[in-house]
C-alpha cells in the first residue's frame, strides 16, 4: 500500500530544490551532502521528537531510506 503524505509534491520538491541549490553553491560532495542530511535528521529527532519515540522513528526513517534507493 503506498504511503500518503500530508505534504504536497510541490511543497516537497520546492524545498528539496532549494536545499540542493545550497549544497551545489558550496560545492558539497556526495559524502558531505549525506553527512549534512544525516545531521539534519539527527537534529530534528533530538529537538522535535520525544525521547521515547526517537528510536522507533529513526528506524522507520532508515527503513524508508533503504526502500527508496535503487539496489
From TrEMBL:
Pfam families in UniProt: DUF1414
Similarity comment: family membership: Belongs to the UPF0352 family.
Gene3D superfamilies in alphabetical order: YejL-like
InterPro entries: UPF0352, YejL_sf
SUPFAM superfamilies hit by this protein: YejL-like
Transmembrane segments: none
Protein name in UniProt: UPF0352 protein LNL84_10455
Coiled coil: none
Amino acid at each position: 500500500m503506498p504511503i500518503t503524505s500530508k505534504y504536497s509534491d510541490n511543497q516537497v520538491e520546492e524545498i528539496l530544490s532549494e536545499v540542493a541549490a545550497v549544497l551545489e553553491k558550496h560545492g558539497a560532495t556526495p559524502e558531505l551532502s549525506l553527512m549534512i542530511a544525516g545531521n539534519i535528521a539527527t537534529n530534528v529527532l533530538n529537538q522535535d521528537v520525544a525521547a521515547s519515540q526517537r528510536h522507533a522513528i529513526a528506524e522507520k526513517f532508515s527503513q524508508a531510506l533503504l526502500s527508496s534507493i535503487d539496489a
